[in-house]
């Protein structure tokens, strides 16, 4: 068992492909120091192949591109996808070696591509296989092993089936369940539709916590505000927010104060978030990285700011240049600060 109690994470930002990369995670750290952050899903087989590469652990090598992060991002969980216990055990050991705080198994993604690899939400149909995977991961590393999943799939969405799944996986060593409170239709709906069309069933997640009080249960799905999260924390152990965190980052600036009773940091502003990225951008550029992968995440930080459209246009033009440096962010932060943002 890891030294950090998984139940201590009362708020987290969900893993999202193309969104929760290392740069966005550093951005979120300007807003909340206490939230648990997740990587994008990394396929266990990809980690295995990267580990065999000659440049595996070198700066800029394949493993570094898949697993590298800045220390400021912690606490940080690595989310992995796969259904092979051996490959997932290898991934878990790598997560520990690279300094992650947790490893999370994706049993919730409904995309057709993921299904073809036989992982993601389709694994809910095989609780025993998920249990074997979790047991292998837990045996391979000291980190907490957690699982993100749906309340059901297709016609297999009874509460009894959900309980059977959770019980089997908990017995194998899973220490927290991040439950997306919607079922997934594996055929007929794409991933975007699966995030909105199946109805939210918070009552199912609440019942799971009530009937399995010894387990750490985190609710995901449809949480649009901090008030929504605080309300859910009366009934479950954790609240996980996805696209609402990406689309409205400053909306979550009171997470540390309201959820963790931690007022050690001043509340973030648009200028403090952008300015807080300057030193990180300098380091990133010194290693040969471009500025745009960092700057692209900033368009929503100026939500509600006067002149936001023009600010975004200028940032895009300047940060998009191949030789753009951290000075672009410093100037952008100053322009916001001068206007009281």
TrEMBL record:
Native species: Cyanobium usitatum str. Tous
Location of the active site: 109
UniProt protein name: tRNA-dihydrouridine(20/20a) synthase
Catalytic activity annotation: 5,6-dihydrouridine(20a) in tRNA + NAD(+) = uridine(20a) in tRNA + NADH + H(+); 5,6-dihydrouridine(20) in tRNA + NADP(+) = uridine(20) in tRNA + NADPH + H(+); 5,6-dihydrouridine(20a) in tRNA + NADP(+) = uridine(20a) in tRNA + NADPH + H(+); 5,6-dihydrouridine(20) in tRNA + NAD(+) = uridine(20) in tRNA + NADH + H(+)
PANTHER family: FMN-LINKED OXIDOREDUCTASES SUPERFAMILY PROTEIN (PTHR42907:SF1)
Family membership: Belongs to the Dus family. DusA subfamily.
Keyword set includes Aminoacyl-tRNA synthetase: no
Free-text function comment from the UniProt entry: Catalyzes the synthesis of 5,6-dihydrouridine (D), a modified base found in the D-loop of most tRNAs, via the reduction of the C5-C6 double bond in target uridines. Specifically modifies U20 and U20a in tRNAs.
Tree of life domain: Bacteria
Gene3D superfamilies for this protein: 1.20.120.1460, Aldolase class I (3.20.20.70)
Sequence positions that bind FMN: 15-17, 79, 148, 180, 220-222, 242-243
Sequence ranges assigned to domain DUS-like FMN-binding in this UniProt record: 13-326
Annotated InterPro entries: Aldolase_TIM (IPR013785), DUS-like_FMN-bd (IPR035587), DUS_fam (IPR001269), DusA (IPR004653), tRNA_hU_synthase_CS (IPR018517)
């Amino acid at each position: 068992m890891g030294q950090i109690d998984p139940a201590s994470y009362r708020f987290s930002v969900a893993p999202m492909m193309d969104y929760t990369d290392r740069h966005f995670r550093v951005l979120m750290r300007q807003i909340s120091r206490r939230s648990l952050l997740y990587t994008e899903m990394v396929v266990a087989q990809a980690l295995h192949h990267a580990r065999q590469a000659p440049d595996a652990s070198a700066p800029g090598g394949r493993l570094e591109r898949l697993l590298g992060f800045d220390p400021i991002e912690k606490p940080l969980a690595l989310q992995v996808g796969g259904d092979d216990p051996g490959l997932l055990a290898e991934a878990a050991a790598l997560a520990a070696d690279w300094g992650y705080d947790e490893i999370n198994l994706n049993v919730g993604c409904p995309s057709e591509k993921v299904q073809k690899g036989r992982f993601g939400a389709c694994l809910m149909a095989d609780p025993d296989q998920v249990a074997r995977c979790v047991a292998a991961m837990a045996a391979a590393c000291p980190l907490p092993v957690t699982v993100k999943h749906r309340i059901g799939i297709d016609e297999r969405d009874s509460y009894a089936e959900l309980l059977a799944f959770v019980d089997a996986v908990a017995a194998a060593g899973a220490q927290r369940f991040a439950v997306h409170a919607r079922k997934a239709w594996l055929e007929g709906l794409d991933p975007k539709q699966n995030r909105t069309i199946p109805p939210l069933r918070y009552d199912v997640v609440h019942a799971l916590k009530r009937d399995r009080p010894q387990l750490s249960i985190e609710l995901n799905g449809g949480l649009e505000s901090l008030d929504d999260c605080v309300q859910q924390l009366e009934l479950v152990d954790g609240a996980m927010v996805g696209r609402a965190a990406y689309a409205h980052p400053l909306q979550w600036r009171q997470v540390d104060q309201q959820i963790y009773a931690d007022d050690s940091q001043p509340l973030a502003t648009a200028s403090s978030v952008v300015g807080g990225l300057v030193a990180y951008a300098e380091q990133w550029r010194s290693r040969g990285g471009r500025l745009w992968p960092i700057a692209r995440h900033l368009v929503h930080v100026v939500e509600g700011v006067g002149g936001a459209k023009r600010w975004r246009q200028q940032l895009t033009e300047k940060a998009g240049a191949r030789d753009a440096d951290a000075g672009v962010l410093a100037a952008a932060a100053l322009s916001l600060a001068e206007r009281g943002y």
